[in-house]
Design goal:
The protein has 2 domains: 2-72 and 236-403, Alkaline Phosphatase, subunit A, CATH 3.40.720; 81-230, no CATH class. The chain is globular. β8, α10 (253-261) and β9 form a beta-alpha-beta unit. 33% of the residues lie in helices and 20% in strands. The strands form 3 sheets. The protein has an 8-stranded mixed beta sheet, sandwiched between helices. Strands 3, 4, 5, 6 and 7 form a 5-stranded antiparallel beta sheet that branches. It is α/β, with parallel strands linked by helices. Bound molecules: zinc ion. The site of zinc ion has 7 residues, from α3.
Length: 412
């Protein structure tokens, strides 16, 4: 037996006035999701705990069966790993944004107009020559998708107990990075990062790419904002816990990093971008193919979360319908006599607030020996009436692995 877990990032939502107080999932045309719900068993999940808004990283850890409160050590290392950087135990990693500031360091655009990859790559290249004044510390900087980038600090006596430079909102000044504890290491690390921020800015503000951007009427990417300092979490790979071979199909580096940490294989899929324009069908094909080799496959689609953060209700409904067509392909091509197919979201993302919210998410599992229930439609409210009731995110993996016969008996 095999298991496929499909995660629509931020796919759950709250009822919206614009949709007659229905959610995007409730109004979307989604025959395949409804089929899954009607033949399968449904429920809702508090991914972390009731009322706690999950990050995509902690949510994915939970959905892979880990206690995120226990193992989470910051976002940065997942981003770096997911981008293919080999992260060492002593490294401190950050998630970064190319952003736009004015001459007073006031943030004008946290995404530098969602700068194109080609521009970001040229800017990133020019930062490599920078030297840190502390001789034993090196840094690696890489642009990833659009305005996103990762920074890895490497050396001894570093600490992740430091604050962000990213103020999180437009109209505020870039923050000075501060130590969050009394240690020499935290103070030392904060000092290096403030120095790097200044040196990055000096190169970026004079860079020809930015001069061209300004000439074209685009915001210059003249600062790197840092956040989410993290180290490599120490977790036991899924393969060791359950004795399964596991594969991840995801474009987003954060999710790839989490899955890599969990010991999963990462697939590269042509046209999978982590945006609303991703190649849904290519991902579906890759997932079905991966099921030939792997016992457990995670298929992650970032698009609904992107639409929600932008408050774009219409786009959210459209991407849910695209995920439905992706699911149709999977249900058509996968060996359903041998496969448990699960659909859920990693968290609720509200189109009104543009934020992750702590509301539970819907869940449906279909497969050969699933005890079905009376739920006929996949949605936040319908699934609440399902046979799985209300679970925590970390309960899902044991449930799936039990279907695969991979959970050890407790007791005699
Ligand atoms: Zn997410």
């Amino acid at each position: 037996m095999k298991a496929l877990l499909i995660i629509g990032d931020g796919m759950a939502d709250r009822p919206l006035k614009e949709l007659g107080w229905k959610t995007p999932l409730e109004v979307a045309r989604k025959p395949s999701m409804n089929h899954l719900a009607s033949v399968g068993v449904c429920g809702i999940m508090d991914i972390i705990a009731p009322g706690v808004p999950p990050g995509s990283d902690t949510a994915t850890l939970a959905l892979l069966g880990y206690d995120a409160f226990h193992v989470y050590s910051g976002r940065g290392a997942f981003e770096a790993l997911g981008w293919g950087i080999k992260v060492l135990d002593s490294d401190v990693c950050f998630r970064c944004n190319f952003a736009t500031i004015d001459e007073n360091f006031m943030v004008l655009d946290r995404r530098a107009g969602r700068i194109a990859d080609a521009d970001a790559a040229k800017l990133a290249e020019s930062l490599k020559a920078i030297k840190i004044s502390a001789p034993l510390v090196k840094f690696l900087f890489a642009n990833t998708v659009q305005h996103r980038a990762v920074l890895v600090l490497r050396g001894s006596k570093l600490s992740s107990a430091i604050s962000d430079s990213d103020p999180g909102t437009v109209g505020e000044k870039v923050l000075e990075i501060k130590p969050l504890d009394e240690s020499v290491e935290a103070k030392f690390t904060a000092g290096i990062l403030n120095e790097l921020t200044q040196k990055f800015h000096e190169i970026l503000k004079e860079h020809p790419v930015n001069k061209e951007r300004v000439a074209r009427g685009q915001p210059p990417a003249n600062i790197i904002l840092l956040r989410g300092a993290g180290t490599l979490p120490k977790i036991k790979p899924i393969g060791e816990i359950y004795g399964v071979d596991a594969t991840c199909v995801a474009a987003t580096s954060l999710i790839r990093g989490v899955c890599k940490t969990a010991g999963m294989h990462l697939l590269d899929v042509e046209g999978a971008t982590g945006t609303a324009q991703t190649n849904y069908m290519a991902k579906a094909k890759a997932a079905v193919k991966a099921l030939e080799k792997s016992d457990f496959v995670l298929l992650h689609v970032k698009a609904p979360d992107v639409a929600s953060h932008d408050g774009n209700i219409k786009q959210k409904v459209e991407v849910i319908e695209k995920i439905d067509r992706m699911l149709a392909y999977i249900l058509n091509k996968a060996d359903l006599g041998e496969t448990y197919v699960t659909l859920t979201a990693d968290h609720t993302t509200s189109c009104v607030t543009g934020n992750h919210e702590g509301d539970p998410v819907p869940l449906a599992i279909m497969g050969p020996y699933v005890r079905g229930d009376d739920v006929e439609e996949f949605g936040e409210r319908t699934c609440a009436k399902g046979g799985l009731g209300r679970l925590k995110g970390k309960d899902l993996m044991p449930i799936l692995m039990n279907f695969l016969g991979k959970v050890k008996k407790f007791g005699a």
